[in-house]
Design goal:
three-stranded antiparallel β-sheet; 1 helix; 91 residues
Length: 91
């Protein structure tokens, strides 16, 4: 875990992985900065975007039912940096 990741969010969890209809994103945002969540395909195109300003524990449920089977990247970013994780959609 890099220093930038620690500044943005703590305890980042994605579940279930592989996802069928939804992917749950759980994290802790201790600095209260606005967090932008983007789902990107492997080419880097942004498929979905969500922004949340939460201080403390946050849980987001993103609908991935319309995404094709495959591997995607979920990226959480704020003014302090970004962190990315991969997940799979398998209907």
């Amino acid at each position: 875990v890099g220093m930038a990741e620690q500044l943005i969010v703590q305890d980042l969890k994605l579940f279930p992985n592989p996802a069928q209809n939804v992917i749950n994103v759980s994290y802790s945002n201790e600095n209260g900065s606005a967090i932008t969540i983007e789902i990107k395909d492997l080419v880097g195109r942004t498929i979905m975007t969500s922004t949340n300003t939460v201080y403390g524990a946050a849980n987001e449920t993103l609908n991935v039912a319309d995404l094709s089977n495959g591997v995607y990247t979920i990226e959480l970013s704020s003014k302090d940096g970004k962190v990315a994780r991969r997940f799979t959609v398998n209907h």
